[in-house]
Amino acid sequence: MTVQDIELPTLRMPYPVRVNPYLPALREEAETWAREMGMVAGGDAPGGHRAIWTRSQFHAMAVDQLTAWTLPDASLADLRLNHRFNLWALAWDDYFASAFKQTGNLAGAQVFTARLHGFLPQEPGARLPEPVNAVERGMADLQRCLFPPGLAHWRQGLNQALAKYIDAGVQELANSLTGRVPDLIEYAQFRRESFAAYTAPYSVELATGARIPERLRQSRTVCALLDAFMDYMGLANDIASYQREVHDEYDVNNLVVVLETSLDITVQEAMHAAADLVTARLAHFEHLTRSELPALVQQTGLSHGERIALDAWLDGARGFLSGLHAWYTGAPRYAPVGGQIPEQRTTGVTVR
C-alpha cells in the first residue's frame, strides 16, 4: 500500500478554532527574528553557517498561523514570544533531521545535543556558551527573553522540558538506526518528550496569564488531565506527519508504526487505531474537566480568584488543542512531497 492509498482517519475536535487578532502584525515580522538567528536564507547567515530554511519553505510552514490559532487570547508581546519559541522548536527539528537523521550521524547528534544542554541553565545569570549555529543562537536569545520576573518560576521546569525534547531526538535517531520500534506503552510517555509537549502548559500560561492553582497541581486528577492534554498533541501529530516522518525521513518513532508493529496489523488498520487512541485521550481530557475536576475544586476549597484562574487556563488549553488540530489538517508542512495534503475529515471545527 502506497502513502497515497492510505486514508487519513477522522480526528475529532469539539472545540472551535479562534484566531488571535494580532495575526496580521505577527505576519509582518514573521521573518525578522528567524533571519537574524540565521534560520532563514537571505543575506549572510550569522557565522557563515547555512540557513535551515529557504524563504519559501519558511512561509509554507505557516508558523504564524499556528501561533495565532493556538493562542487566540494572547497579547501581541506574548504572542511574539511564543512565536519565536515555535520557530525555534521547528528549527531544531528540521536541523536535527537534515544534519543527523538523514545522514545517520548518531555521534554528531550526541555532540550537538550535549552542547545545546549548555543553553538550558537551571540558575539565572548563568553564562551561556558562544552559539555556533542557528539553533544555538535562537535558544540563547530565547533564554534572555523567557524568564523576566513575572515568569521566573518557569526556568527550571521549562528548561527541563526542553532538555527532554532535545534528548528525545537522540533516542529517536538511535531507534531508527537499529530498527527498534518502541513498545506502545513506552511510546506514549516518550512522545510527550519528543513532541516538546511538556512545554505546552507554559505556553497556555503565557497566553492566558493564568496558572493551575498550586493546591491542585500534584493531584491525580490534574496530573491525568495534563497527560491527556499532552498526549493529544503528539499522537495526533503522528497521524498528520506520517508521510513526512516515516516515508521521507525513514523514522520508526511514529504511533502508526508502533501500532502496526505491536498489534501486527496493516498500516490502514494502524491509522484507524491511532485515531481511536487520539480520540480516547481527548475524551479523557473532557471527562476529567467536566466530571472529576469540579469535585476536586469543591473539595479543595479554592478561592474565587483561583477558580477564575483555573477556568482561564482550561479555556486556553482547549484553544491550544483546537489550534494545533487546525494546523495539522491545513498546513503545507504535512502535505506529501509533490502533492496536496490528503483530505482529512474534521468535526466540530471550522478552519478559515
Give the overall shape, derived from the CA principal axes.
globular
Per DSSP, what share of the residues sits in E-state strands of 2 or more residues?
A: under 5%
The CATH architecture would be Orthogonal Bundle
Query: What is the number of beta strands?
Result: 2
Secondary structure class reads mainly alpha
| Rg over C-alpha atoms, rounded to the nearest angstrom | 20 Å
| Residue share in helix | 55-70%
What is the fold-level CATH name, i.e. the topology? Farnesyl Diphosphate Synthase
Count of discrete domains: 1
Instruction: Give the neighbour order of strands across the main sheet.
Output: 1-2
CATH superfamily: Farnesyl Diphosphate Synthase
CATH class: Mainly Alpha
End-to-end separation in angstroms reads 32 Å
User: What can be said about the biggest beta sheet?
Assistant: 2 strands, parallel
Uncertain parts: 337-352
H/E element order: EHHHHHHHHHHHHHHHHE
Please, how many helices?
16
What do the pLDDT scores average to?
Answer: 89
